[in-house]
Structures are given as C-alpha cells and as structure tokens.
Amino acid sequence: MWDPAVYQRFGSERSRPFVDLVRRVGAEAPRAVVDLGCGTGDLTRTLAGRWPGARVTGIDSSPEMIAAAGEGFELGDIAAWQPGPDTDVVVTNAALQWVPEHRELLPRWFAALPAGAWLAMQVPGNFDSPGHRVVRDLAPELNRADPVDDPETYARRLIAAGATVDAWETTYLHLLPFDGEHPVVRWMEGTALRPVRAALDDQEWRSFRAEFADRIATVHPVRDGVVTFPFRRIFVVAHKD
Ligand SMILES: C[S@@+](CC[C@H](N)C(=O)[O-])C[C@H]1O[C@@H](n2cnc3c(N)ncnc32)[C@H](O)[C@@H]1O
C-alpha cells in the first residue's frame, strides 16, 4: 500500500528528476500525454501546464494514490497499458522499478507509438546503495535481482527498436536536515520499506524500524545537523523520428 502523505515528505527532492527528465522531451504540441505510475498526480499536472492543448492522463495501480490525485486520473496496471494511436508523449517517473516486465514493455510500447512520439523514463539506480543493502540484510526474504538496468542497456534496447536515444545518469546529493528522526528512514518508509511494513504487524514493525534506524545512522551519519544522501537515477528519452 502506498501512503501519499509519507511519499510526499521529500517532494522537492523527488520532483527534481522529473523536471530534468521532461526538459529533454522535445514535443511541441502533443495530442495525448500519458504519465505511467503517476502517484498523486502533482507532477502529471505540470505536463498539462507545459502542453495545454494535450489530453493528459495519469495511470497508477494504487487506489490510495489515485484517490489523492483526483479527477482525470485512472486506476490501472502499467503492465497492461498500451499506447493509443495519438499517444505522442509517454512519461514514467520512478515507477518502472516496480514493474519487472518493463524491460520487454519498453520496445513494445515504442513500436506501437505514432511517428514523432517521445518515450521518457526515469528509474532509481540505487539498488546497491547503503540503505538498500541494510534493508536486504534485515529482511533477506526481500532479496531480489536489481530491478533496473544501466542507461547503456536501456539505450541499446531502444536503439534496436529504431529509436533515437538520449540516456544518462545523475547522482543527486540530497542534503537532508536531521530533525530528531533520521531523514533516510523517513525517506525509505515512503518507498523501499513499504513491502517490509506490509509484511509485519505493528509491534514487529516498531522493532524493525528501530533496528533499521540504528543501522542507517551508521551508514548515513548526521554531521552538523545534516545527512548527505547520494541518490543515483537513470534517465532515458527515446524519440521516434
Ligand atoms: C515512487 S512512486 C512515483 C510517483 C510519481 N511518478 C512521482 O514521480 O512522484 C511509484 C508509483 O508507481 C506506482 N506503481 C507501481 N507499480 C505499478 C504498476 N504495475 N502499475 C501502475 N502503477 C504502479 C505506485 O502505485 C506509485 O504511485
């Protein structure tokens, strides 16, 4: 279950990759724009601002997120989605890491898009980060293969499908103030820790969270009231000439 309020705790840090991604999309007057895994829809609405003539839709599989997003957003599974004949822009930000089959879906979507279309994705590339390693140490049942690829692998797959590709990675250095509770714990509660929370009762969760917080404080120490939290992200923008 996604909790919109918990996810939005670091809204400013989380929105920056979306802005950096969409800036590289060159569409001028797209007919339909789709945001896959749109969450609360706050970032989706900025797409309507950029392309006022477009029909902008956001799709998400979480009823809580769609309820927070309001009208015009649709409950749906990314894995079942297909582009329409007028889908000129597809954006998906921080969502495909939850969709294992996305590696096959990307070239399939690209093939189905109309000429001139853009497909833009961003996924976190932090599977080997200290925080994720702590999650896997404490909850080994969550061990799984890295859910995303490197930029080059995505680029190769889309070039093979006929795309002109722009692919890159950025490590943002988030500087998170410590306000009595470790900010990386608060950050990860909104995303990577959700499956752990869902598997535990309240008491088990409290003790897991306390142990997690101790371990996180050793890998992300607080200095001068601030935690430095490097966060690698992977970007791919594919254009159909
Ligand atoms: C980390 S949030 C990102 C939300 C938004 N794109 C943003 O950048 O703020 C990931 C979102 O992907 C959605 N999601 C995960 N798996 C999905 C799937 N198979 N189909 C649709 N949405 C999915 C979740 O419900 C969640 O809202």
Topology:
Blueprint: H1 4-7, H2 11-22, E1 32-36, H3 42-50, E2 55-60, H4 63-69, E3 73-75, E4 87-93, H5 102-112, E5 118-124, H6 130-138, H7 151-160, E6 164-177, H8 183-189, H9 194-199, H10 202-219, E7 226-239
Parallel strand pairs: 1-2, 1-4, 2-3, 4-5
Antiparallel strand pairs: 5-7, 6-7
Helix pairs in contact: 5-7, 6-10
Bound molecules: S-adenosylmethionine.
In the CATH classification, which architecture applies? 3-Layer(aba) Sandwich
Structural class: alpha/beta
Overall 3D form: globular
**Count of discrete alpha- or pi-helical segments spanning 4 or more residues:** 10
Total of domains = 1
CATH topology: Rossmann fold
Beginning-to-end CA distance, first to last residue: 39 Å
- The beta-strand count equals 7
Approximate strand percentage: 15-25%
> What's the arrangement of strands in the largest beta sheet?
3-2-1-4-5-7-6
**What are the bound molecules?**
S-adenosylmethionine
CATH homologous superfamily designation: Vaccinia Virus protein VP39
